[in-house]
Amino acid sequence: MAQLRRLYGQSRPNIATRLRVLMVCKTHEHTGISKRSIAREVGCDPGSVQAWRSAYIAGGLDKMLSHAMGGNRPSVISAEQEAVLREKVHEPRNGVPGFVELMHWFEERFGEKINYKTLNGYVKRKYGAQVKTARKSHVLKDPLAAEAFKKTSPRTVLT
């Protein structure tokens, strides 16, 4: 029990909950306790209590504390494709008004189909792209002409 308390103090919250369940089970080892009672006491779902208890019985503390959550899947978009896509998205005169057009460009450029949601999520996540938003200024605007215009324009004062 002392080892469990020490582990409990050093562990992350999701692992600490599992250890708390085990400590309650050990406390009521001789009298018995239901999974619903443990769940109420610890503050978790009875199904989780059952799964953790079964894992402990099957493989001990190591099996109970391990979790088989899936990690990140490998990207559908390769590193080469990502580099070309980055250039296309950041190009000011790219002429791609939306994600459907970008998807068609991707399929033509690389010769492989890509799911709309996959490309949409990737571009939004990686580059912060938004759907068909207006540009702040025209892509052909001359910065020198804009600066000259600002210098010669009369100033207005808000009162």
Brief descriptors of the model:
about 160 residues, 8 helices
Describe the structure.
It is a single chain. With 159 residues, this protein is mostly helical. It folds into 2 domains: 2-65; 79-132. Helix content is 62%, strand content 0%. It is built from 8 helices and no strands. It has helices at residues 2-10, 13-27, 35-42, 46-65, 79-90, 99-110, 116-127, 143-152. Helix 2 crosses helix 3 (35-42) and helix 2 (13-27) packs across helix 4. It is elongated. It starts with a helix and ends in a 7-residue tail after the last helix. 9% of the residues are buried. The mean pLDDT is 81.
Instruction: Tally the helices.
Output: 8
Strand content bin: under 5%
Low-confidence stretches: none
Instruction: Categorize the overall geometry.
Output: elongated
Strand elements, count? 0
Radius of gyration: 29 Å
Main sheet record: none
Class by alpha and beta content: mainly alpha
Helix content: 55-70%
Order of helices and strands: HHHHHHHH
| Termini gap | 73 Å
> Overall pLDDT, averaged?
81
Indicate how many domains the architecture comprises. 2
